[in-house]
């Protein structure tokens, strides 16, 4: 049963987004308004409004007279998002290098340590959420609200492609080595180095897409 301390639309939106982002609803899967309404004990109005917001966020596709479907992110879309993500990442690294604190560096180093553990085990599925946490932390630490909003939006879109794109033949050890190099550049307040390392690390996702043939 959905609780009602927030507006129904916001609660439904959060639940649907969680289902999509957790992979419980996969690309192309329909959102059954009637079944969801019955399961959650809400009317279909808030569900439709939530679906419109999800469409604006690029997470679902609304097809007239057919319904609402979890969006299928095409390889070309993923490549374009990766390019934008790389530019934003480089800028975040440049900003943070000038203001990073010892506490923030400690948090980032702790994440690289956790990623090292799962990388040695070859556990890509465990690596992915820590990796996402690491990059989100860098954007949050940069303290640029608009930049964070843009990054969060494109990251949600790219998440739809994650198993085919972000985890295509992942070299986890090399990926985490790049994380350590980013942290080292930040520690040295090397704005140019942090920017370059962040950008090149982000673009490696696109290279995996192209190299795998998914981008053709």
What does the model show?
The chain contains 9 helices and 3 strands; from the N terminus they run αβααββαααααα. By secondary structure, it is mainly alpha-helical. It is elongated and about 55 Å long. The termini are far apart.
Key descriptive features of the protein:
disordered N terminus; 216 residues; three-stranded antiparallel beta sheet; single chain; mainly alpha
Helical residues, percent: 55-70%
Name the helix and strand elements from N-terminus to C-terminus, one letter apiece: HEHHEEHHHHHH
Order of strands across the main sheet: 1-3-2
Report on the biggest sheet. Answer: 3 strands, antiparallel
> How many helices?
9
Distance between the termini: 44 Å
Radius of gyration, whole Å: 19 Å
Strand content: under 5%
Shape: elongated
Strand tally is 3
The overall pLDDT average reads 87
Low-confidence stretches: 1-5
Broad structural category = mainly alpha
Fold blueprint:
Blueprint: H1 8-21, E1 30-31, H2 33-40, H3 44-56, E2 60-63, E3 67-70, H4 75-97, H5 102-120, H6 124-142, H7 145-159, H8 172-187, H9 191-212
């Amino acid at each position: 049963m959905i609780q009602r301390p927030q507006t129904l639309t916001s609660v439904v939106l959060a639940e649907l987004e969680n289902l999509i982002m957790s992979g419980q609803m996969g690309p192309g899967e329909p959102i059954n308004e009637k079944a969801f309404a019955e399961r959650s004990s809400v009317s279909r109005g808030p569900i439709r409004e939530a679906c419109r917001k999800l469409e604006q966020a690029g997470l679902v596709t609304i097809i007239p007279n057919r319904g609402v479907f979890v969006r299928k992110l095409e390889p070309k879309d993923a490549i374009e998002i990766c390019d934008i993500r790389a530019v934003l990442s480089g800028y975040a690294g440049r900003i943070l290098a000038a203001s990073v604190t010892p506490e923030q560096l400690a948090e980032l180093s702790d994440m690289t340590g956790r990623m090292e553990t799962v990388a040695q085990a070859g556990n890509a599925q465990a690596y992915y959420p820590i990796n996402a946490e690491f990059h989100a932390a860098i954007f949050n630490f940069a303290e640029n609200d608009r930049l964070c909003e843009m990054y969060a939006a494109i990251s949600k879109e790219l998440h739809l492609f994650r198993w085919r794109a972000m985890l295509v033949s992942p070299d986890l050890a090399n990926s985490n080595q790049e994380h350590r190099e980013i942290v080292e550049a930040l520690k040295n307040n090397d704005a140019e180095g942090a920017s370059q390392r962040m950008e090149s690390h982000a673009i490696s996702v696109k290279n995996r897409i192209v190299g795998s043939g998914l981008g053709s």
